[in-house]
Write a structure and sequence with these properties.
Strand order of the largest sheet: 1-2
Helix content: 55-70%
Number of helices: 4
Distance between the termini: 25 Å
Shape: globular
């Protein structure tokens, strides 16, 4: 998905509701793909998405690209 996760540094603090809605939209897009793992290079994005995943109790894993590369 090409949408922002909604974290964006202080954006998530200043606009918490909008930030949460953006993360929810991102997770909805991920769910539509059927993916069980989300890989990103942005740690803050992964943290934001993981929060939504945990609140919704979804079976999706988040992992940083460096972890993927290190496991090879």
């Amino acid at each position: 998905a090409q949408e922002c996760c909604g974290f964006g540094g202080t954006f998530s603090v200043k606009f918490a509701q909008l930030s949460g809605a953006m993360a929810g939209t991102k997770i909805d897009s991920i769910l539509q793909t059927g993916a069980s793992t989300v890989v990103s290079v942005d740690s803050s994005c992964l943290m934001q998405l993981q929060g939504v995943i945990e609140r919704r109790q979804l079976p999706i894993q988040t992992i940083h690209l460096a972890e993927v590369l290190a496991s090879r």
